[in-house]
Amino acid sequence: MTEQIAIPHSTIAQMLRRSLREQQYVLASVTSGSMRPLFEIGDQIGLTSVPPAKLHVGDIITFETTQEIQTHRITTITPTHIITRGDRVIQFDAPIQHEQLIGRVVMRRRGDNILDLRQGEGKWLNRQLHQLAEQEAVHFTRRYWKSRPMRGFIHRIYTLRAQQIADRKI
């Protein structure tokens, strides 16, 4: 029986940053559903190195927190911090400092299907899901947005269309 050793997330983050600095191609596995439907549990994501000055609202980044490594979408960028949240998570993440950035997500692999988020349908899908996530954040924070059935209905329509595109072999 092989003994499994837990590697601290900070060590993994350092290894990822070093690999990206050396311009190696980095793949990471998705372990949560916070970015559904774009990223499902078990998908692999491709990362590239990016300086914080080249980031934009809507980009999906991988970063280190005090407890784990996360991949979420940027909602706000300041000179010293980045604020993110998962597309399926209503609350925003705690602000991260630029030094916590690991890389930008540019690709998703699901089985044999590779979706490039920088061009074509992958870029279009990523923009649509970004807009939907922004609209949901606005609506969920308003007091009049109390109708869970309506919220669920709108989400299902966009999720269905997004899933149809995401599942295509590109």
List the helices and strands and how they pair.
Blueprint: H1 9-21, E1 26-29, E2 44-48, E3 60-64, E4 69-77, E5 81-85, E6 96-97, E7 101-110, E8 113-116, H2 120-141, H3 148-166
Antiparallel strand pairs: 1-2, 2-7, 3-4, 3-7, 4-5, 5-6, 7-8
Helix pairs in contact: 2-3
Would you summarize the structure shown here?
The protein has 170 residues and is of the alpha+beta class. The protein has three helices and eight strands, in the order αββββββββαα.
Would you mind describing this structure in some detail?
This protein is of the alpha+beta class and 170 residues long. It has a single domain (9-166), classed as Ribbon (Umud Fragment, subunit A). The chain has 3 helices and 8 strands. It has helices at residues 9-21, 120-141, 148-166, and strands at 26-29, 44-48, 60-64, 69-77, 81-85, 96-97, 101-110, 113-116. Strands 1, 2, 3, 4, 5, 6, 7 and 8 form an 8-stranded antiparallel sheet that branches. α2 (120-141) packs antiparallel against α3. It is globular, with a radius of gyration of 17 Å. The chain starts with 8 loop residues before the first helix and ends with a helix.
